[in-house]
Specification:
Belongs to the NAD(P)-dependent epimerase/dehydratase family. dTDP-glucose dehydratase subfamily. It catalyses: dTDP-alpha-D-glucose = dTDP-4-dehydro-6-deoxy-alpha-D-glucose + H2O. It is an enzyme of class 4 (lyase). With 332 residues, the chain is α/β, with parallel strands linked by helices. The protein has a domain of 225 residues: Rossmann fold. Helix content is 45%, strand content 14%. The strands form three sheets. A five-stranded parallel β-sheet has the order 1-2-3-4-8, with helices on both faces. Strands 5-7-9 form a three-stranded mixed β-sheet. A two-stranded parallel sheet has the order 6-10. Strand 3, helix 6 and strand 4 form a beta-alpha-beta unit. It is globular and about 65 Å long. It starts with 7 loop residues before the first strand and ends in a 12-residue tail after the last helix. The chain binds dTDP-4-keto-6-deoxyglucose. The site of dTDP-4-keto-6-deoxyglucose has 18 residues, from helix 7 and strand 6.
Length: 332
Amino acid sequence: MRATDHSVLNVDCMTYAASTETVEDAAATGRYEFAQANIVDGAAMSHLFETFRPDAVMHLAAESHVDRSIDGPGVFIQTNVVGTYSLLEAARKYWLTLEPDAKKAFRFHHISTDEVFGALEANDPPFTETTPYDPRSPYSASKAASDHLVRAWYHTYGLPTFVTNTTNNYGIWHFPEKLIPLVTINAIEGKELPVYGKGDNVRDWLFVEDHAEALVKAVENGVPGETYAIGARQPRTNLEVVKTICAVLDELLPDPAGPRERLIRYVSDRPGHDFRYEIDPSHAEQALDWKAKHTFETGIRRTVQWYLDNRDWWESIRARRYTGNRLGTVKE
Ligand SMILES: Cc1cn([C@H]2C[C@H](O)[C@@H](COP(=O)(O)OP(=O)(O)O[C@H]3O[C@H](C)C(=O)[C@H](O)[C@H]3O)O2)c(=O)[nH]c1=O
């Protein structure tokens, strides 16, 4: 199946106030058209299937910010667990109505995270598809639960599902509460750059366009019951990430006050902060005939340039809605 020749129901950002506002911001750019429905609402989900009659589903809808899940886990259980259940049931009811060929070709692609595998120590080998689940935050536990539901619907009902687990994404349109957009925007504005703990936690960074390409390959070629661990082999400590952003910005937009590393502030650590995530993507690269094109350095350069070129987008988000304490305030 080629994703470009078939209708794929891309379920994303359809949940709750914060995500709906994200959708409005994205839709305001004129580049997107969204069907909005609450993922927890089974009837609304069934209506989406009847309207679109998709050949496949890409399930990207999730509450995704770990800090928010620590502040308020309930919405993560609703969206990520109950929402995935409701989407699976709507997909199953629709799938049962399909003709045999369409039924065989149908795919339910669940997009998930490497956080379900827990935390690595410095010398542990990277996660693979066979790493046991060991989630530790309310967010990762809710995603782990959703992964298990998706596999259960394959084994129990025969719904042709598969799962991709990916490393940290970054790039254009990244919501300004996560580390990279938050630090980029704060650095542009000359504000302090909050680094949790000592800044030695490691994340493995995948440029969003590389991930999108992998997801298209996966929905075209993914085998039901399979798992694909997707990453770019670009692990960096958080301090390296922040310093790289500062250096790129100093080059693209020099600050008369001096190098931006002066803005780095070490703040209280995230409770239960997972030390290190990293994926070995060998199986996915081979099975999906895909490989990430960006190194962290090429991807971050494009990202910083994009935030410089798209101030209107993030300024309006910061000004209108998200001035709360999860948006770049230094907490000490
Ligand atoms: C917001 C913030 C974060 N950090 C640290 C915490 C992490 O060690 C690292 C990245 O944090 P962020 O919240 O951007 O992303 P993760 O907690 O690694 O999780 C992200 O990647 C996974 C795979 C998903 O599945 C999540 O959905 C996604 O949000 O920077 C700071 O030091 N300062 C800050 O102000």
